[in-house]
Fold these 4 entries.
Entry 1:
Amino acid sequence: MSDMNARNEHENEDQARNLALVEGIRNGDKRAYRTLFELYIDSVINLAYGYTRSYEEAEDISHDVFMSLWENRKNVNIDNSVTGYIFRATRNKALNHLRQRRMADKYRTVEELSVGEDIGYNASYNLGPATLENEELQRVVRAAIAQLPPRLREILLLNKEQGMSYQDIATTLEISVSSVPVQMSRALKRLNELLKDRI
């Protein structure tokens, strides 16, 4: 049997096991819930961290994902990809969290203005002249990534930071697998253009 066939067979077995766990969760099986939680918690935290850049927030989001799964277990409808379902739920919760954070930041900025503080001041930006070369390089790359179109940025970060496969990215973002490498190529080309005069 070829490596590809063996890998596909392994993925099919994992998927069948995961679907059986979801069926157990639907029926209130706490052991099935715990098993699914243990299988995915690290990946979910890493994915959420990719959006929030905060481990504390990523852990909160990941627990929300699993609590929501348990609380809504009777209505959960997963026909094929448990991984895709969990990653989509994580992505959606992370994006909602970021929207809420932006709203809170806007409110806080308005509050700061009302007491006479400078708009946008944040002590963490005060790095001073002793910034290490590696930190500067990371800052430049992060700034360039931030300039990418949202979809390209998201695909690039899911692949490079989260280590997600093209298949998992396609499932998470609900796009075709064949479009992922095309968009990755565009993201990397654009990133190279943004960085060529800065590095």
Entry 2:
Amino acid sequence: PQRAVRDKRYKLIHSLLLRPDPAAKKHLNHGASNFRGSPSFEELKSVSAQTDQIYKTFLNPPNYQLYDLQNDPHEFTNLACNPEYKEIKKRLIARLEKWQVETNDLLRQPELLKRLTAETDSCVKQNIRAPQNGWKYLQYLNPAKISGQQNNSPWENANQPLRIAPFLDLDGMVITVGGEQRDN
């Protein structure tokens, strides 16, 4: 799982797990699968250094990625470790953490993140897209059930896919859940 925040110029991506992504590896091992058009590891042997770095980041995302969308709209150059961007990174991290608190982002809780990771890793190991008895995260990451509220949230039917808005515009910034984003 990842969270991201951006302003008009910079985008910060925070990877919640500091480990290789087993699902990404699986897709590259087998070529296309869910990522139509993704190359296989064999095909990656002949790509440019820049493309190779992109796929290395895809497979093993760093804790933070920072991109200058004005000068690098395709997000090729990660500036997160560049000391010149320390204050920008710090500002965006603070805004992302504020959003996580404001929205009660349940994956801030290590035990829930660990549980979600175990559930998804089990599917990867078994080479299945979803557990036979359905995803359990629809129960333990259900904000309405955790707080005891009754409402008509997308969580009500655990057999339905998870529907979370891919972004929220807060204070002129865009927050993404997952990897989708949209400019306002």
Entry 3:
Amino acid sequence: MLPANRAVGEAPAHFGATSVRFASDSGTNISVYPTVSDAVHNRVRKRLGFLHHLVAPLLLIQLHPRLGIATDQLRPIDQLPKLTCPVLIASGDSDAHTTGNETRRMFAACKEPKRLVLFEGAAHVDLLAHAPAKYEREILGFLDDVFARPR
């Protein structure tokens, strides 16, 4: 989650810092996993196919002993319903790292006002480089709409 006027807010929101309180006018979420479990399974599945069911849990179980972080602390999707500002969720529709289903789950977790933007043919890539006109129209348009409103 990237509060538009708080660039430093991205990491705490992605890591599920429940003590973080955003004073933000809008939030954007571009190609972000809903949970670390989803992210690890997707990445392992991409390389090992069905074996992800065996390998991903072995990787995930290492989070707490190695980093002191539990998997339930790495669930950006849990933070979305707490936002009280307009939210934009954007991703590529061919993204194997953050799937279309996961992107739609993230969008569903948000309160209104919210906007979903899917970039056709885009994988887990720089969406601005993939489709500059659409990016400008949708992403920058969202921010223009949010900041043009009277406060």
Entry 4:
Amino acid sequence: MAYKHNSREALGYGLIGEAKNHPFEPAIKALSMETPQNHKIARRPIWIVGGLIVIGLIGWYVWEHLFDISYRPIKVTGTIQAKEILVASKVGGRIAAVLAEEGQTVSKGQRLVEFEVPELEARRMQYLAHIKESEAYLAELKAGPRYSEIEKARAEANQAQANWEMLKRGYRQEEIEKARAQRIEAQEQLNLLERGYRAEEIATARDAMEQAKIQMDWAEHEFKRYSGLASQGAVSSREADELKIKGDAAREAYEMAVESYRKMQSGPRKEEIDAARQRLKAATEQEKMLTRGMRPEEIKMAQQKYRAARASLRLLEEGTRKEQIARAEAKLAQMQASLQELDAQLKDRFVYSPADAEVSVMDLHAGQVIAPNKSIATLTRLDDMWTRVYLPERELGRVHVGQMVAVRADAFPTREFVGKIVQIPGVAEFTPRNVQTAEERSAQVFGLKIKIDNKDKLLRGGMNAEVTLPPVEGPFFKLARKENAPRHSP
């Protein structure tokens, strides 16, 4: 019984303790059971026990190197995703032109859509005019008043002073006599117009008209006669030209005489009489004003005009103040800033592509009205492709951020693309529902984000991708690497 106990202990507890999770574990457990067959096995030679040990070691080696997937690459699948960019307009409004179409490849900064902004363009023209005016005014202030302006202001000040002094001393007697003579002349002209023309004046006008008619007829007759002689060569053409000039002058004199005669026959017109009355009224008021002299308020007003003219002259002589120049510069800078702000708004009338991409969705047409900040197009960046694959928790040790992996797509089975792990989540998650078996769905996984090099623009969003993760080095290989060799401190 002691022998059987030792055999069971040797074949059961000892080997089972070393062969847990071993492919030959059921056979070893069967040997450790208390059965009649075990008693027979216990009586066999000891070489049977040694053979079983060797078989167990061979099985362990096969398990570790053939069935353990950590020492060989694994393949996981995912769906290729492309980065999409939603493009919107800040200003909105009515579309003037659509500059791109679906399926077109656009570059960064390329114009996609143009909006109508007539009101902004009108405001820009106004700002430009105001800026030009402000620049001219500032240049004028910096240059200071011209010599001619100072002399003009001095002359106005002297004139205002002379007028004020004249009003203070009153008008001279000769000025009063002159005003009285102008009033008498205006009265006589009005009386003449109201009385009408005398018969003698009309007869004189008629005689002048008849005399002008005789002179005109004679000049025309002489011109015709000399023109015929000039055509025959009897006289020079110069004499005929001189007679033609005299004939034209005689005709003008006759027409004026006819007009004067008709005017005297019809008498003065009403508007002529009214104009003569106005002249008489003005001359009468002027005579009265000079006779009575100026009122005190008129003298005071003249004094104020003189002081204002003197102050304007003093300002021009002193030149432009620094405060005026600073104020003009500030106003000009404000207008320029407003123009820059408006130019920024005008620039926003174009919608630009933010990156090199392909236009995926853009259903627009000219004349369409778009609200501000509303998406107008979807761009797909074919140079920024990625996929997400799910790795079991037990295999997480084989990957790290920045690791390069191989990627294949069903559309290009013979081509291998280069991928790079750019993200490993910090928190595990349960396997997505698209995994088939319940055992796998119950396991925790990590979704790895892998960026794919798509420089040839072959891959598209939605394609299936197969990612190959490299194997993990075994303990022997890790130890053999130079960087893993033990270091001895000095």
